[in-house]
Write a structure and sequence with these properties.
transcription; DNA-binding transcription factor activity; 2 domains; 11 helices; two-stranded antiparallel sheet; Arc Repressor Mutant, subunit A; GntR family transcriptional regulator; DNA binding; single chain; DNA-binding
Length: about 230
């Protein structure tokens, strides 16, 4: 009598959908389906992933709801973001909530500055000096858009110097909100009274002084009057 061979257990439906979501997300994060590109059709996904049509449909729907994918009638489904949190933040960002965004920035950036003072490497200090110099040059140029990007780049360099991967990922998720607050407080032109010196922040990180770094990072995030 031929011994029977047990088939591998079939995951419950909810688990199959979650596994499929993870597979789709993995291909997006891995660059196989870049932002702006169209993902394979439903039948192609069924074949590639080895799951049923309904499972694929539910997984795609979940990523559409999360803001990662977008279905375009008559064209297909496209990747619109690699980050599920960023679209949520963007949808909630309005002028009357700008104060809340500044509070969130403060929560991230004060701790990031404190950690950066403790963990910064020589490479981090080079990056911070470069970002600070670029920010100063952008201010002198008088171009608002250039200054906003340079200011964001400096804050991002501080977060990177904290060497906390989760903090960096969360901070990246609020990137659009960060740019909006900087642009909001900067206004339509670069006015001298709106200038905020960030050299003391970089100096505190360089000196390895976490308390001073935290104070400097929080100082310009108190009112909505400085970037």
């Amino acid at each position: 009598m031929t011994p029977s061979v047990d088939s591998p257990p079939v995951p419950p439906r909810g688990r199959r959908v979650q596994q499929t979501i993870e597979q789709l997300r993995g291909r997006i994060l891995g660059g196989e389906w870049p932002v702006g590109g169209r993902i394979p059709t439903e039948p192609q996904l069924v074949t590639a992933l080895g799951v049923g049509r309904n499972t694929v449909r539910e997984a795609v729907r979940a990523l559409v709801h999360a803001g990662v994918l977008e279905c375009r009638q008559g064209s297909g489904t496209y990747v619109v973001s690699t980050d599920e949190l960023a679209p949520v933040v963007a949808r909630r960002l309005t002028d009357d909530r700008m104060a809340e965004v500044v509070e969130v920035r403060r929560a991230f950036e004060v701790e990031a500055a404190r950690l950066a003072a403790l963990r910064r490497t020589p490479e981090d200090l080079v990056a911070l000096d470069g970002a600070l110099a670029a920010r100063e040059a952008a201010w002198r140029s008088g171009r608002v858009a250039g200054f906003v990007e340079a200011d964001v780049a400096l804050h991002t360099a501080v977060v990177a110097a904290a060497h906390n991967g989760m903090l960096a990922e969360l901070y990246a998720s609020v990137g659009a909100a960060l740019r909006s607050t900087v642009a909001y407080v900067t206004g339509d032109s670069l006015q001298p009274q709106r200038y905020v010196d960030h050299s003391r922040l970089v100096a505190a990180i360089r000196d390895g002084d976490p308390g001073r770094a935290a104070i400097e990072a929080g100082a310009f995030l108190e009112p909505l009057s400085g970037a």
